[in-house]
Amino acid sequence: MKLVDKTIVIAAPPGDVYALLTDAELLVEWMAPIARIDARPGGEVAWTHHNGDTVQGEFIELVPDRRVVFTYGWDRADVGVPPGSTVVEITLKPVVAGTELRLVHRGLEGPMADAHAGGWANYLARLTARAEGRDPGIDPLAGERVPTRRQLGLT
Fold first, then answer.
1. pTM above the 0.90 mark?
2. CB-CB neighbours of 84 under 10 Å
3. DSSP strand E in the chain: where?
4. Are 139 and 126 within 8 A, CB to CB?
5. Topology classification of domain 2-131
6. What is the three-class DSSP state of 9?
7. What's residue 2's pLDDT?
C-alpha cells in the first residue's frame, strides 16, 4: 500500500477552509456539483463529480478548524476502491500566511495512489482558489473518469 501525502498553504483562516470541507453547500463550489455531508462522527460524506462518479464514506473525526478524517471509496466496483475502504486525513494548522493543509490518503495500491495524487492536486488547487476568494473555474477533470484497476494494470 502507498499513501498520498500533500501539504499546501492557503491564504485563508483555518475556519474558512474547515467550512469548505464540511459544508455541502460550500463543497459543491470547488469539488463536485452534488454533495451530501452530515458533519458528525459516523455521518455521511459523499460527492458526485460531473462525470457521475461518486465518492462515498463517513466521517471518523471532526475537530473544528483543525482536523477532518473520513473513510473514502468509489461507488463503481471496477475502480476497486469500495466505499469506506480507504481513509483521508486532513489537518489544518494556522500559519502566518493563513492555513497549512496536510492531506494524507491511506490504503491505496501504488498506481491507484498515483492516480488519486493527481486528483487531489487538482481539487486542492480548486479548494485554495475558492478559500482565497478566487473562482476555481471549470474543473479540468470534469470529463475524466476515475481509472479502473484494469486500466492501471492492477488486475
1. yes
2. 13
3. 2-10, 34-37, 44-48, 54-63, 67-72, 86-95, 98-108
4. yes
5. Alpha-D-Glucose-1,6-Bisphosphate; Chain A, domain 4 (3.30.530)
6. strand
7. 84
